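hey so i finally got around to running the thing on that chain from the lab meeting. sorry it took forever, my laptop kept dying and i had to restart like 3 times. anyway pasting the input first so we r on the same page abt which one it is
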Amino acid sequence: MRRATLTTTVAAILIGLVLLCIEATPALTGLFFAPFALGPLCITLLLALLFSERRAEAILLASTVLYMAWFGYLYMDIFHWHPDPQSAIGLLFSGLYALPVMLAFWAVAGRRQYIANRQPIKRA
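ok and heres what got predicted. didnt touch it at all, straight out
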């Protein structure tokens, strides 16, 4: 499970970076939006590196998939469905809008990891 979570989160970050750079006029300008739009995925990646409990990893994987669905919807809305010269500013707030939901996922995953660390190891 750990490898799946790490791979999916890294792939999501890379896909997000590519999408941001495709839409930017000088391509590297898209990197300006990366901390704002992809910051929650970076935090999820950090937590995936720290947590080793299987259920916590599954929760983090679900949060990555849901955040990428949110980012994909926002990307399509901003650049394809309702294009506007100033609509890219919405990317500055995408991570902030998703923060309450992501905090809930991170808290539940952290709680699962905490519970797993507190249980004594059973000896046969």
